[in-house]
Specification:
- There is one protein chain.
- The protein is α+β, with helices and mostly antiparallel strands and about 220 residues long.
- It starts with 10 loop residues before the first helix and ends with a helix.
Length: about 220
């Protein structure tokens, strides 16, 4: 059975759980509702660039915008997160999880990222075969740091598409962005700088939490 988007059994939530509605919502918004203003502008820039290319080829404004949006969805979307709600097959394996964590560990410093945090079922040690990996990229407030973070998010989305890996990623520079996470979530970290540890003293290193998730998975 595919994963439900909303657990509430109300009529509205049942309607929103319809697979066509889930797909259309994801396709139209592409996660933009949850992005900071900076990341949203950066995301829309990709659509504009692709649209300009298609306009030069087709000389049709509406088709150019549509195909630009489709291309952004294909290259810079999070399709395999969406697939959890559309198909009944398992979304993830322990080997895929280990591989993707390793990719992040080896790449985030290339982009000058402050840290990459993992929230959701991973930090709660509740991951399973229908889970996804919820990443939050913490970056500096200046334009250069922000742009590098947005590029890194694009890089991770592209890799996740190539690897068919369900990964959900957003960028932030203020910890207020994390205010909506569950009270029992203590975002796992890669670098663990003092500023972060003082705010989340119960947070643990990603690799330690990864081991716990894999052990739980085997049980």
């Amino acid at each position: 059975m595919s994963k439900l988007k909303f657990m509430d059994s109300s009529f509205l939530k049942s309607l929103l759980n319809n697979k066509l509605m889930v797909f259309l919502s994801n396709f139209v918004f592409q996660g933009m509702r949850y992005m900071t203003v900076g990341e949203l502008v950066f995301k829309l820039m990709f659509t504009c660039v692709f649209a300009i290319v298609f306009y030069m080829l087709l000389d049709s404004f509406l088709w150019a915008i549509f195909l630009g949006h489709v291309t952004n969805f294909a290259l810079n979307g999070q399709f395999f997160v969406l697939a959890r709600y559309l198909f009944s097959s398992d979304a993830i394996s322990t080997s895929q999880l280990n591989e993707f964590i390793d990719i992040i560990d080896k790449s985030y410093k290339w982009f000058g990222i402050e840290d990459v945090l993992i929230i959701g079922s991973f930090c709660r040690v509740e991951m399973g075969r229908t889970s996804d990996l919820d990443l939050r990229i913490w970056h500096g407030t200046d334009i250069q740091s922000s742009t590098k973070a947005y590029l890194y998010a694009f890089f991770l989305r592209f890799i996740s598409m190539f690897k068919k890996f369900p990964m959900d990623v957003y960028c932030f520079s203020s910890f207020n962005f994390l205010n909506k996470i569950r009270a029992d979530e203590h975002p796992s970290y890669f670098s663990g700088v003092d500023e972060y540890k003082s705010r989340y003293p119960m947070a643990r290193n990603v690799h330690d939490v990864l081991k716990d998730n894999v052990e739980r998975w085997k049980c």
